[in-house]
Amino acid sequence: MILLFTATFTILALSSLDQVESSAYDKIVTHSRIRAKNQGPNVCALQQVMGTKKKYFSTCRNWYNKSICGKKAMVLYECCPGYMKLEGKQGCPAVAPIDTVFGTLDLVKAKITQQYSDQSKLREELEGAGSYTMFAPSDDAWEELDPVTSLVSSGNTELYNALHYHMVNKRLLTKDLKNDMTIESMYNKQGLYINHYSNGVVTVNCARIIHGNQVATNGVVHVIDRVISVVSQTIKDVIESNDDLTSLNTAALSSGLLGQLAEPGHYTLFAPTNEAFENLDSDVLERLMSDTTVLQALLKYHLLNSVQCSEAIMAGSVYGTLEGSNIEIGCDGESLTVNGIKMVLKKDIVTSNGVIHLINQVLMPDSAKQVMELIGKSQSIFSDMVSELGLSAAMQSETEYTILAPLNGAFSDETMSMDQRLLKIILENHIVKRKVSLSDLYSGQLLETLGGKLLRVFIYRTAVCIENACMVRGSREGSNGVLHLMRSLIQPPETTIYELLLKDGRFKIFLALMESAGLTDLLKQEGSYTLFAPIDAAFGTLTEEDITLLKSDINALRAILLYHFSNGVFINGGLEGGVTNLLKTIQGNNLQVLSVNLPVGREDILILLRRLIKYMQLKVHPVHHRTNTHTITRVIKGEPSITKVTRVIEEDPSITKVTRVIEEDPSITKVTRVIEDPNVKITRVTNGDPSITIIKGVRHSAGSSLFYKLPIL
């Protein structure tokens, strides 16, 4: 019965807890309690930054990293808010005695606040009837306050007003303190600005609550880490009145943004000082100030549409700016960092519509930079060559263009030793005459370059390619154009597939078969094709008799040859690696292509590659020809133990059926050919080396891609 009652009571208690609204602060305290469960009841685990007095109920990230703001943190175990120790007992088994707000100040060790409350005649109010919230500065907060002496010595009235500004005429627990909330203080109804962050930090005018929810008989006490003062200015007011921000004031006025900074809102402004603007190159500053659109983008990059107090930053996090790009705000000890750089000179200038942090650098978004300024270290060779060859002059700030910048690895020794006139032509074809962002590109699009060439765009499922070169991640958009990063140098096509094959010299058999099938014009005409071209070595297992047999049936020959063509241009970089890419052939069926980027110079890697290539299947059904029906089936299948190649040809007066089955293995190759006829039977066995289908290279031609293949399909 006792067990039943205990279980029932526990369930009811847990159910009632579920119904109570909890905040991020409450959750982080609960996590701290769980981490300290081995220390006894009602104990919380905190982290204290080494070398400081700062203590935090930590997030999981900080807890497991054992650091806060990049500084080592040691673990402390303290009684959770509202509990106390008992002598001889483990943990904190006692509930703290409840007292008035004045008496509670002593309980939470806010003794100086209690002393000043008594001195300023506030004690009577704090012990009287009512319901109050007291944001009580800790003793350390009072000791760190510079003008505390003048505040105390100026008389009880000033001290009374200052303490009244820390009070609200209602009880507000942390769960009631919502993010971006403004509440009226008891001093002339002046506003208190609340922020409640997802990491559990709660701030009042950017002062962090370090001990919350200490309930009193007539209210609640929250201990904060600094003394707060009345907020009367907007961000605009601070910019206009601060002598260190005159350059920012001029820029904000010119951009038309200053008025917005006077309106109600919840902003964070990283405000560059006058010195920060002076550190910019004079020509850059002149260009910025002369373009309202660029200047506005620059200033919006310094603005967040949320209030980020320094005490809420415990690790690096990414935030969206009003400009549209992201910046990373982090911390390094006591310092704030922006995009990983220590640049904050002064933190937490609280205003009625946000907070200001003074910085010693001007943050420059891509949208305020010219395209050439976007080029990074990985494209430095291209940048240097563009300057050396005089192409920079063609890219003026008032002209829009797109740079297709190859990575440094794309420039071989052979390329670098070329005649400068030829090199200039190559580079000109990497500069497009207009601004084309990544989202503007589509398959079949033609882009005109400075060199007068028209480059074709190919869009694939996981890649964007321009002619033979595919992009890598990292496209950036500047004020007058776009930068795209290319994996290799772009080579505009200069000839047809036919001319490429003829000049190469390794495709004599394939070209002869194409001519016999009447398909040579396909290699010469305009269009967009991908050809998987078998070199002469791919026909090595076929005799002249076999070739003659192929040529004797034009429909079958055409079906086989057209199976090597795919409609559309498929660049090697556009094929998705590690999966089978299905390409529809001109013949009508799908071609299965497995793109594996593996080195094949090592035997063990070659064996692995053979295992990865599972199968390719071809089923061809040409049109009916007179009374004959033609069916050609070819299967290539990989097995780990034995390789057999069997070809069977069966004929009768009405039906021709050709079936070829190939199974591969890295050790043994057997070829068996059987020709059955009512009067003749011939069997031939050939032993040879194993083969594997490997794409040996890619050549680019007008309207097409050409892949060299070892075996014939």
Low-confidence spans: 1-20, 598-699
| Quaternary state of the chains | single chain
- Read across the widest sheet, the strand sequence of neighbours is 8-7-13-12-11-10-9
Overall mean pLDDT: 81
The 3D shape can be described as elongated
In which range does the helix fraction lie? 25-40%
User: How many DSSP-defined strands?
Assistant: 40
Portion in beta strands: 25-35%
Please give a quick description of this structure.
This protein has 713 residues and is an alpha+beta fold. The chain is built from 24 helices and 40 strands.
Task: Kindly describe this structure.
The chain has 713 residues and is an alpha+beta fold. The protein is built from 24 helices and 40 strands. Helix 4 runs antiparallel to helix 5 and helix 11 (246-255) packs across helix 14 (292-300). The protein is elongated, with a radius of gyration of 38 Å. The protein starts with a helix and ends with a strand. Mean pLDDT is 81; it is low at 1-20 and 598-699. This is Periostin, osteoblast specific factor a. Residues 40-94 form the EMI domain.
